[in-house]
Structure formats: C-alpha cells, structure tokens
User: Which sequence fits this backbone?
C-alpha cells in the first residue's frame, strides 16, 4: 500500500487490488468537501476498474487495517450501489472504482435523495404508529 493525496484527502492505495483505504475522519471530510469530490470525479481522471467488468467474486469481509476486526459492508448512502467496507472509528476500504462511484453519487445529489427518502420512511413509520395506537385505543374503549 502507498499513500496518495486527492485534493486535500490523504489515502492509502493498494497496488495489488487497486482498492483504497481512507481513515474515518478523512472520509468524512471527503464526503463534505466538494473540491475533493471534484478531484476524484474529474472528467478524464484515471478511474481504476471503471472499464473492467464487474466480476461475480464471492462476498469477502475485510479486516480493518488498524484493529484487524472484520469490517461491515454497507451500501454507501443507501442508494449509491457502492458496497464499501467500514470499520466505525477507523476507516473505510473501497474496492476498485468505488471511490469514484461515491464521489459521483455525492456530486449528483445522491445524499440529498437519500435524506429525502429517509425522511419519507420516517414519516410513514410515524403514520403507521399513530394508526396502530389509535386502533389499540379504540379496542380498549
């Protein structure tokens, strides 16, 4: 692995798999910093694995580079399609091409869409809970 810098973000790149490790605080900054996202998503910038077809590799849980515990796999932003490996507090490992996918998702308004959907889901859950409570109250009377 070797250190690299994209915009203002330092990350480790794996020469063997073209994956990327980003420390937790750096990933949070990357997700909030449009300049760094633009540096990742820049037209004409090399996109490791973008041209390569997705292989049907078996799901593999990766150990955290810092603590060694197996990381959780999650769909970044719930909608992006980038399944990233996360160790809360330590960092995120992104497979080949996923860093670009995450940056493109954020720049394309994906986080705003994800928040809107989450708000709608919460409102629906609240509506169901109120209906259930009303039905229980009606039964008790």
Assistant:
């Amino acid at each position: 692995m070797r250190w690299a810098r994209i915009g203002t973000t330092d990350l480790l790149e794996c020469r063997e798999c073209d994956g990327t490790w980003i420390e937790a605080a750096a990933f949070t900054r990357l997700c909030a910093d449009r300049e760094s996202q633009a540096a990742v998503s820049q037209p004409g910038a090399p996109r490791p694995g973008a041209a390569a077809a997705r292989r049907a590799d078996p799901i593999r849980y990766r150990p955290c580079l810092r603590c060694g515990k197996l990381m959780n796999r999650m769909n970044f932003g719930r909608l992006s399609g980038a399944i990233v490996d996360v160790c809360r507090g330590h960092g995120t490992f992104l497979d080949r091409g996923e860093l670009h996918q995450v940056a493109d998702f954020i720049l394309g308004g994906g986080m705003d869409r994800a928040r809107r959907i989450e708000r709608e889901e919460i409102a629906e859950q609240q509506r169901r809970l109120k209906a259930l409570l009303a039905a229980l109250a009606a039964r008790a009377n």
